[in-house]
Amino acid sequence: MRKSLWLLTLVLAIAINASAQTSSDRPNSEVEVRATFSVPSGDANFSGTTSSGNTLDFARDFDFKNEWGFQIRYAYRTSSGKHKFVVDYDDTSWARDTILSRSFTFRGETYVANAAIASDLKLRTVRGMYAYRWGTEKFRIGPMVDMGIITTRLELTGTTNSGVRSNEGSISKFAATIGYDLDYDPTPQINIFNNLGAIVFQGQRFLHAEGGVKYFPTRNFGATGGYKFGRYKLEDEGNFLTVREHGPFVGGVVRF
Question: Which tops the pLDDT comparison, 14 or 199?
Fold first, then answer.
């Protein structure tokens, strides 16, 4: 009986201590791994001309379908919650085999209508972010700035006027965006987050936004889920490639 009472007292003490945790009691660092499910759209022109007939529409010409990608993120928050640092890597590819409904020029080759074509579209981003947030122990919001490298690549293999050819159009740019970052912690187990960044500069256009929820059944391990959107237009020597992607994500989080 005494052992049972002692055990019950210990369990209650642990539960009370856990419920009384504040944000300052939580780990400062976390690693998040996500599976992303992306709906793609966009266009590209690598013809070397300004002809609109050579601008490729990803939905009309290639019929790209939704695909899974992955995202890895490290975040650090100071104990006060004012300063937040993030390093993020995001990688998604869309591949599709279809029959062309029209002819177009890509990298100096004319791909002919009514022929099979294999297409592969890739989007990779690597970025670092800093945010300075005001607020309370449970709610923080403030301006953020991020910078990194965005790489877009379109690969085509199909029948041209010169036979079967494979060509690639790729643009990589250093990019920075400004926006805001928000965290709301209604309980020690729940974190609601939102982040948005955008910029327009010399023909380049970058926009990314996400929102979601993290749930931590234990102090160090949790799950995450939400929705994200991105729009990236990159130009290089008259060529351009625009990728828009949006969709849900799910994943796991480790705090330490």
Answer: 199
Angle at 143 (CA atoms; ends 139, 144), nearest 5 degrees: 110
Name the nearest CA neighbour of 90 among 76, 108, 71: 71
Alpha carbon dihedral 109, 115, 118, 123, in 10-degree steps, equals: 60
128, 113 contact by CB (below 8 A): no
The DSSP code sequence of 219-251 is: SSEEEEEEEEEEEEEEEETTEEEEEEEEEEEEE
- Confirm whether 15 is domain-assigned: no
| Range of the structural domain that residue 108 is part of | 24-255
pLDDT on residue 216 = 97
CA distance 90 to 71: 4
Tokens of 166: 């494979």
**In a domain? residue 9:** no
**pTM for the model:** 0.83
- Does residue 14 sit within a domain? no
Show the tokens assigned to 183: 């965290």
Q: Could you give the CA distance from residue 118 to residue 93 in angstroms, rounded to a whole number?
A: 13
Specify if 5 maps to a domain: no
H-only helix segments in 103-243: none
| pLDDT tens track for 187-244 | 999 999 999 999 987 778 899 999 999 999 999 999 999 999 999 999 988 889 999 9
Look at residues 147, 185, 146 and name the one whose alpha carbon lies nearest to residue 30.
185
Q: Indicate which CATH number applies to the domain containing 72.
A: 2.40.128.90
